[in-house]
Design a protein that fits this description.
By secondary structure, the protein is of the alpha+beta class. The protein contains seven helices and 13 strands. Strand 12 and strand 13 form a beta hairpin.
Length: 218
């Protein structure tokens, strides 16, 4: 086993050590259950009694839902922040098995329709190190709704909005509900300090990424 493989294995072990359910309540009408998977966060959002998911990389999400006594059929829709496998890899599964509507960014249509990862631009030696272990393919699917402009979620009963934020991918989107923002891989939490923001391992335009973050904060 080479150094790269060893490092990635350690990274996965550290991440899996954080596996669990973290519950955050907003001050208004929203509860968020953050479901930690091996490589990314999956968010179950409950807003005014309506359930939806933000991202998902594995069918094991069902195990998390079961632990919360929630059935997949209760999920109204799934929003993916971008088309990379670790965030959209479960979309085809949930759409085919449970008929859940998928919302995605228009700029990532080619990625999700092909099921193949596009170019990744590493921002650090760490990104270079783990690149070979990053999943490059997933089951292709087609979103029911493609977002290419600021779009209200009111038709789904949600007081929230989706925003195109091309940076990590051309189709990256942010979802804001009750003042809570879900931004995918525009930023990441540090490996040993999840609540501390850091530049993601892969950004093709770091300057644009910083601009996007500043725009979102204003």
């Amino acid at each position: 086993m080479n150094l790269r493989a060893v490092f990635f294995l350690l990274l996965v072990i550290l991440t899996m050590g954080c596996t669990g359910v973290h519950i955050t309540k907003s001050m208004n009408n929203t509860i968020v259950h953050t479901l930690y998977s091996a490589t990314s966060n999956i968010h179950l959002v409950i807003h005014k009694g309506i359930y939806f998911l933000v991202d998902g990389d594995e069918s094991k999400i069902e195990n998390h839902l079961e632990a919360l006594d929630i059935k997949p059929e209760q999920i109204s829709f799934l929003v993916i922040t971008h088309g990379h496998p670790d965030h959209s890899g479960a979309a085809a599964y949930f759409k085919e098995k449970h008929g859940i509507k998928i919302i995605a960014g228009k700029g990532d249509q080619q990625i999700i329709n092909s099921g193949k990862l596009n170019k990744l631009c590493s921002t650090s030696a760490l990104g270079d190190l783990v690149y070979s272990a990053v999943p490059k393919e997933f089951k292709a699917f087609n979103a029911d709704v493609f977002i290419n402009e600021e779009t209200s979620l009111a038709e789904y009963g949600i007081d929230g909005t989706t925003y195109p934020i091309p940076s990590h991918t051309e189709g990256s989107i942010a979802i804001v509900v009750d003042g809570l923002a879900f931004v995918g891989d525009i930023i990441r939490g540090k490996a040993m300090a999840k609540r501390t923001p850091a530049l993601h391992f892969y950004q093709c335009d770091v300057t644009r990424n910083e601009e996007v973050i500043n725009e979102a904060l204003t």
